[in-house]
Design brief:
By secondary structure, this protein is of the alpha+beta class. The chain contains 12 helices and 18 strands.
């Protein structure tokens, strides 16, 4: 049964940039940005231990936190701006004016902080209560739609902890850019207002992202004909959030197992591959989340018969800052992500070499990005829609490379970080392991009544299927 808890709003305010720090600025959208126009907002939560009462936080911590945010925002001004969507054929853009600001909500929760920072099943609604909704879209007289980019919520768990929940529109920034912002804010807050060094400043010139073949127009045209009224995935009302931790030792065992499968099975599909932690973790999750999806379909249809030629799909993105065909600075602020799609037949993924075949397919696709991450980019949105409609897909959000557990505002490292926006069954989140270098944390959301599937596939079944000592 779900736990009962309340979240009471204590304060609602807006934090603006220092007067005169940034003038009115229009930021065009690149083809990388356009891809995320109709994506739901990104929601990241950081939970910190803070064994003091609410009043102590309000009086001593909150003023400095707001002040450091104000000092940080001029360097990352698109996050304080609005997304403006005029009527076609005019293109959307981001616009900052000196009256713009970031909405900040301060709340208090009676939920059990120490329960929320665990890895066990926790009520997902508790996490949804820790992230703000973006303010309502405004419709101007000329029918332009204007939507704020980011909102923040700080929630206090009296005498236990605090959470920082951020909701932002993916159009403005990818995970790497957002990570740059949040760590910069943390640094300024931790140092008492010390300015960022020139080497730490973001790069805002969108001209470095060239658009070969009018990709922005092509993908925007495809996006506008999507049918958003009938989502293929429904997140259950009563769901739980679980963190599956793969230690460094377990990942190394998984890599070795995949290598042995590739060497011993004399299968032409299993050639030599470069096995990274990302590749084997995603292969492991793709195959086993596919198993969960099939178990759910069995329950719905009463049939365990599946077409062996059905293709299952894995979708992810790759940072192009180091892959792009021309110089994109490492500190570039915005989106610089290439979609990549991996497919395999059910018969391949459910066989005894399933994870090895999945790893082979993912590794080959990732390796191919080095030859040109924009190959096929004109078909990204149409391909995405085709795969989403099939429903047979697994996606991943986040990356261990973002090092979310290094986000220290002066209260120590986070006790937990979660991506609140991941849905059920078809998506998972990925981050580095807080407590061990080289390990990973995987976030999953499941219906409360489907926990038996998690135990069957990810706990009891793993040790029987693979000699990896995965049992809890």
């Amino acid at each position: 049964m779900a736990q009962r808890y309340t979240v009471n709003v204590l304060e609602h305010s807006h934090v603006a940039l220092p007067p005169g720090s940034v003038s009115t600025t229009t930021v065009p959208l690149t083809f990388f940005d356009v891809l995320w126009l109709f994506c739901g907002p990104i929601q990241r939560i950081f939970l910190y231990e803070f064994p003091y009462p609410t009043l102590h936080f309000i009086e001593t911590i909150l003023p400095h936190l707001k002040h450091s945010l104000s000092l940080t925002l001029p360097h990352f001004f698109p996050l304080a701006a609005t997304l403006t969507c005029p009527l076609p054929p005019n293109k959307p853009y981001i616009r900052y004016t000196e009256c713009d600001s970031v909405s900040v909500t301060v709340a208090e929760s009676d939920a059990d902080f120490h329960h929320l920072i665990g890895n066990h099943a926790r009520d997902n609604r508790a996490f949804q209560s820790l992230v703000p909704k973006l303010p309502t879209v405004r419709v101007l007289p000329d029918t332009e739609q204007v939507a704020p980019i980011m909102a923040l919520q700080i929630t206090i768990f009296p005498n236990s902890g605090i959470s920082l929940g951020i909701t932002f529109n993916h159009v403005a920034a990818d995970g790497r850019s957002f990570n740059h912002f949040i760590k910069s804010w943390a640094s300024i807050n931790r140092s008492g207002g010390e300015a960022l060094t020139s080497l730490s400043l973001p790069y805002h010139n969108k001209d470095v992202v060239k658009d070969p073949g009018e990709l922005a127009s092509t993908n925007l045209k495809d996006l506008l004909i999507w049918d958003y009224s009938n989502p293929t995935e429904t997140v259950p009302e009563d769901n739980v959030r679980i963190t599956l931790v793969l230690s460094r030792a377990r990942i190394e065992k998984l890599k070795e197992w995949v290598k042995n499968q590739s060497r011993n099975k004399n299968d032409p599909e299993l050639g030599p591959i470069r096995l990274s932690t990302y590749v084997v973790t995603c292969a492991f999750m793709w195959v086993n989340m596919m198993r969960i999806q099939e178990k759910l379909k069995e329950g719905e249809t009463g049939s365990d018969h599946f077409d062996e030629d059905t293709h299952y799909h894995f979708i992810s993105v790759a940072d192009c800052r180091e892959r792009y065909g021309f110089a994109v600075p490492a500190k570039y602020f915005g989106n610089c992500l290439a979609y990549f799609f991996v497919s395999a037949k059910r018969s391949e993924l459910t066989g005894e070499n399933g994870i090895a075949i999945a790893a082979q397919a993912i590794a080959k696709t990732v390796s191919g990005l080095e030859k040109g991450p924009l190959i096929g980019a004109e078909h990204w949105t149409s391909k995405l829609w085709e795969v989403v409609k099939s429903g047979d897909l697994v996606t991943v959000a986040g990356s261990p490379k973002l090092c979310v557990y290094e986000t220290d505002f002066g209260w120590g490292r986070p006790k937990k970080s979660e991506l609140a926006h991941i849905g059920a069954y078809g998506s998972f989140s990925l981050s580095e392991c807080r407590n061990e270098e080289g390990g990973v944390e995987i976030g999953l959301v499941l219906g409360r009544d489907k926990m038996d599937l998690y135990n069957e596939i990810f706990v009891q079944g793993l040790e029987n299927q693979y000699p990896l000592d995965f049992a809890a």
